[in-house]
Amino acid sequence: MSVTDQHPASGPGPDAAQAALHDRIAADSLTTRRDYLRIVATVSGGLAVGGVAVAGGVLHRHGDNDAPPDAKRVAAALAPGESVAFRFPGEDDRAVAVRLKDGTLVGYSAICTHLACGVLWREDRGAEGELYCPCHEGVFDARTGEVTAGPPPRPLPKVLLVEEPDGSVWAVATARSGESVKDAMCRQFADARPDMAARLGCPGANAKPNARTKAETDAKTNASNAESTATRGERSERT
After folding, report:
1. Which one of 2.40.110.10, 2.30.30.230, 2.102.10.10, 3.20.20.100 gives the CATH number of domain 39-207?
2. What is the pTM of this model?
3. Quick one: 226 exposed, middle or buried, by C-beta within 10 A (0-12, 13-18, 19+)?
């Protein structure tokens, strides 16, 4: 019997191998089957708004948190072609930041929009690399997060990234799928940071002064009233 005529060695077939792969990925906590929940978009006060790299969407969450996420440093630096996996905005939320070959910085949720399997960065696939889901062969465009192959029904949610002058990369916010960065920020800033919302030109931003500004205004008003009262008292004593 020639080599080509030999029967395959006993072992798991293709279906079993695929199932084993799926189980292994699940065991590694790369899968979570959760509903899409709202994640607010905001920029941490210590980071420059102008430095936000458009990188917006909905992350799979183990809970719904409407509080602005804390900014998180994800890399000291990223060179073209490099990527880094991290968790944001919560410890159960897998994400990835990628520096494309032309220097563009992008960030995404690393959870597939099909069945919430883990998404991997593959630099060796395509002209710019691809974001690939091994569970059901889902493929996402590295530059836009759009679906290019497989069953995922929606683009990958994005993560807003900031690159500081020292080259460090920070994750600062997320936005809903299909939502512009400005709309995502305005949605959260309207309540949490009206001062920032006003700077962004968000609709109705001036109608809601933030608590700090209101407190400062009230304090100045009270001080002015007290000063006026004291002045009137001095005048009464003189007369």
Report:
1. 2.102.10.10
2. 0.59
3. exposed
